[in-house]
Amino acid sequence: MPLSAGDRLSQYQILAPLGAGGMGEVYRARDTQLERDIAIKVLPRALANDPERLARFDREAKVLAALNHPNIAVIYGLVESDGQRALAMELVPGETLGDRMKRGLMPLDEILPIARQMAEALEVAHERGVVHRDLKPANVMITPTGQVKVLDFGLAAMAQPGPSAPGDPTNSPTLTMGMTQAGVIMGTAAYMAPEQAAGSAVDKRADIWSFGVVSFELLSGQRLFSGDTVAHTLADVLRAPLEFEKVIAPAPIKNLLRRCLDRNVTTRLRDIGEARIAIQAYLANPVAETAAVQETPSGLLRSRFAWVWPGVAVATLLALLAVSFLHFRERPPDTPLINTTLLPPEGGTFELANYALPAISPDGKRIAFGARTANGRAQQLWIRRLDSPTAQLLPGTEGGSNPFWSPDSRYVGFAQDQSLKKIDIQGGPSVTVASPVVNMRGGAWNPDGVILYATNDASGTIYRVSSAGGAPVKASAPDVGDVNGHRYPVFLPDQKHFLYTAPNAQAPFAVRAGSLDEPGKPGKEVARAYSNAMYADRHIFYLRENTLMAQPFDADRLQTTGEAVPIAERVPSFSLPARDAAFAVSSSGLLVYQTGGDSGRTRLVWVDRTGKELSSIGEPVQTAIDLQLSPDGKTLAASLTENSSLQLDLWTYDLARQVRTRFTFDPGPDRALVYTPDGGTIVWSSLRGKTYDLYRKASNGTGSDELLYSDTMPKVPASISPDGKVLLYESPDPSSGKGIGGNRDIWALPLAPERPGAALKPRPLIQTSFEERRPQFSPDGKWVAYDSNESGQPQIYVVPYPGPGGKRQISPEPGTQARWRRDGKEIYYVSRQGEVMAAEVAVRNGTVEVGKVQKLFGGLETARSYPYVPAADGQKFIVASGLSASAQPLTLVQNWMALLRK
């Protein structure tokens, strides 16, 4: 009896029918224990009442459950309820291959990735001793992302009678259902191998035949076997001529098809893995593969000259060898330069600005990148195979960034929730390698299992850790002026030396070379660049202004050997003080980069609480961070760059007159500004020596810069108390012994000395073994909001000022960069998805109570420092908005070496 919505089988509640066929009825169901939707297939009575077949399938289901392959739909297990037997299976969205084929002949670049994925599914099953026996278009699903899922593994084995009936002509999964079921039987019979149709024993080569039949149908648009009855169809399978002339395919693919459709099982293609390899080879280089089949195959020379007299044969052979020598000593023609466009996932955008720059796998077959879907709240990591038209999501990478590859191209390393993680691209959960990892800035992985990663902890160092996990240790040593951290490590060919970039006061953004064997020795400067740098095929790559440059480089001597040449223009870069350039390159000849006229530039705009743009402020700039409104709301101050250099200066905007005025003029970078409560003074951080020190000047720009406070640690000012007496800033503890690599604490600095002539003396306000950042006084000065990673990921907390008292967590999810509304009734912060959140707060009985927390709007680049600032009433905001850099497609260049010859 068919099931209805609301019926239950064990823990599964039926939701709706999905379809029916010879192998049973399929329903959408809800797993009430695990709270997920699955597919339920109710088995036909002939199978469900056969204990021997059920026992065999139960054994095989355990094997299938362990396959864990992205191209195989998982069977969760057998279900029995009130005498009814069913299978619990993965619910796969999308359409069957049969439905897709009904819409018309498919293009080759769509067919081959599907065929390759079918082959991969069969390959992994065959390696575990599992044979499908019923591969057909109806048992192949195509998901909305283009992923293939092969269904019904094991059903054929259950339907097939045991060895007691070896000559039974019903030795197929469909024929056991009864010979009168037109349609389903016809369809299945048409894909049977000859030995299967003849009732003989079958093995994995039957699947190879079925694979060939499905591929024939894809490539020709026609059924290979289509008799009027089941008997006619089976007869055609056994004897009808195979009309390969109907196949529209290049010679290598057609030859592969012939081998799969060899009726002699002993000479048929023996391993489906060979089909997968052949398809991959063609997809990787269609021109070379097509040319290869036109060459003389092995043995042909001997057969063609077998009739020649021996002397003539020798002479002819010598002549051929001479011609071959003359031919092969000539310089082969240059491999052509091929440019293609890579689009983000359907309806989504690339999120390269949020430290998710593209990364090319070492085998040159895949690209990892960050993207956000149209309805997605979080940036996620994706994998795009070069032989596939669509990208595949890496599940569980929400908020992930900084992707990089393992040397075997099997794993992707990435940053998530203040941790370094790795994930197997074939499936499975991510694994934490190191934690905490504060604001990671690039990673690299060598064949010895060493991972290098950089953090934004102001330490000026790169860390190394085993890919299996363990305690990280320093792999690079800071040089004089290295206050912004070493970034983006890249291994050189010896896998011991590595390149990295370092924003530096003395040599802005130098490219340096370090060594795993000399972690205490400062790196050797090899080039100057204003971006991350990469190495490939005896060249280093980096950005100069917005032009991608390639410069010859000797990796043994660690020095450049020629002039840099441009290979791509209008390549955007993001973030400060580092420049994160949107490109990746590999020695396999692949280059991927993003372009765009205004990509990477920034607009300052007013938006309302929904994110709707109200008006713009001034002209676009290269970068804007650390936005601050004056107390009267008439002036905006920010740290800006006007070009692609590292130089950050403070500027102020008269919002009424739309006039921008430069505020600082020193050669060092200036950032992290804050107004005094009366609006008369701006305090900021400036790099004019070995570290960032605190300076102040009248907000109208008159007078000279005054050094407010200096010590050996970098300091980031954040907030001044309402009475104007205390400045809060973040800085490592100078007494910790960890130098600038220590965790940041929150310090309180009196703005006036205790007595005339005395030095200013800060005191630690919040000091733990964790990272505390971005403190903000409440409007009444009685509370301080800040973010800390003590939970393993950044969260917003509030503590009483000046203390003592317990802290209160404000953000229910990760968040940073808190701001107060002028009346103290809301705290705003930025989620890890780049959304501005608003938390209602009130003080009751001496504690801060948290009310409703809601999302206001998204789209902020979380890499920026304070990319937003609220108006006093919280009804509108100024935000730093990127100019659609993430919306631009990626350009993929195959054989980038040809660019050097232009």
Description:
This protein is of the alpha+beta class and about 900 residues long. It folds into three domains: about 10-290, Transferase(Phosphotransferase) domain 1 (Transferase(Phosphotransferase), domain 1, Orthogonal Bundle); about 340-600 and about 885-900, YVTN repeat-like/Quinoprotein amine dehydrogenase (Methylamine Dehydrogenase, Chain H, 7 Propeller); about 600-825 and about 855-880, 6 Propeller (Neuraminidase), CATH 2.120.10.30. The protein is about 15% helix and about 35% strand. The strands form 15 sheets. The chain has a six-stranded antiparallel beta sheet, with helices on one face. A hairpin with a 2-residue loop joins strand 2 (about 10-20) and strand 3. Helix 4 runs antiparallel to helix 11 (about 270-285), helix 8 (about 205-220) packs across helix 10 and helix 11 packs across helix 12. The longest helix is centred in the N-terminal third of the chain and has 20 residues, at about 110-125.
Summarize the SSE layout with pairings.
Elements (H helix, E strand, L loop, with lengths): L7 E2 L2 E10 L2 E8 L4 E7 L2 H4 L2 H15 L9 E7 L2 E6 L5 E2 H6 L5 H20 L12 E3 L5 E3 L4 H5 L24 H6 L4 H4 L6 H17 L9 H10 L11 H10 L11 H13 L1 H7 L7 H5 L5 H19 L9 E5 L6 E2 L8 E2 L5 E7 L7 E6 L5 E3 L7 E5 L5 E6 L2 E6 L6 E4 L5 E6 L4 E6 L6 E5 L6 E2 L12 E5 L5 E6 L7 E6 L8 E5 L5 E3 L2 E6 L2 E8 L4 E2 L4 E4 L4 E2 L5 E2 L1 E3 L4 E5 L7 E7 L4 E9 L1 E7 L5 E7 L7 E6 L4 E4 L7 E6 L5 E7 L4 E7 L7 E4 L6 E5 L5 E7 L11 E7 L12 E4 L5 E6 L5 E6 L6 E6 L7 E2 L5 E6 L5 E6 L4 E9 L2 E11 L10 E3 L5 E7 L7 E5 L8
Helix pairs in contact: 4-8, 4-11, 8-10, 10-11, 11-12
